[in-house]
């Protein structure tokens, strides 16, 4: 398991959000960013609430 610093985590989350906005699948985003499915799904839920 990889351990990220706070700023690295925020950067990965920003990339994931941008990929979600582009319509990329959650599973693909997890492979690209190293985030967990749960983390990406939480970001997806936040995006849905914002829109």
3D architecture notes:
The chain has 51 residues and is an all-alpha fold. It has helices at 6-21, 26-33, 37-50. Helix 1 (6-21) runs antiparallel to helix 2 (26-33) and helix 1 (6-21) packs across helix 3. The protein starts with 5 loop residues before the first helix and ends with a helix.
What's the main sheet like?
A: none
| Count of strand segments | 0
Average pLDDT level = 93
Ranges where pLDDT stays below 50 over 5 or more residues in a row are: none
Order of helices and strands: HHH
- Measure the end-to-end span: 33 Å
Rg computed from alpha carbons, rounded to a whole number of angstroms: 10 Å
The percent of residues in helical segments reads over 70%
Q: Tally the helices: what do you get? A: 3
Class from helix and strand fractions: mainly alpha
Strand share of the residues? Answer: under 5%
Shape: globular
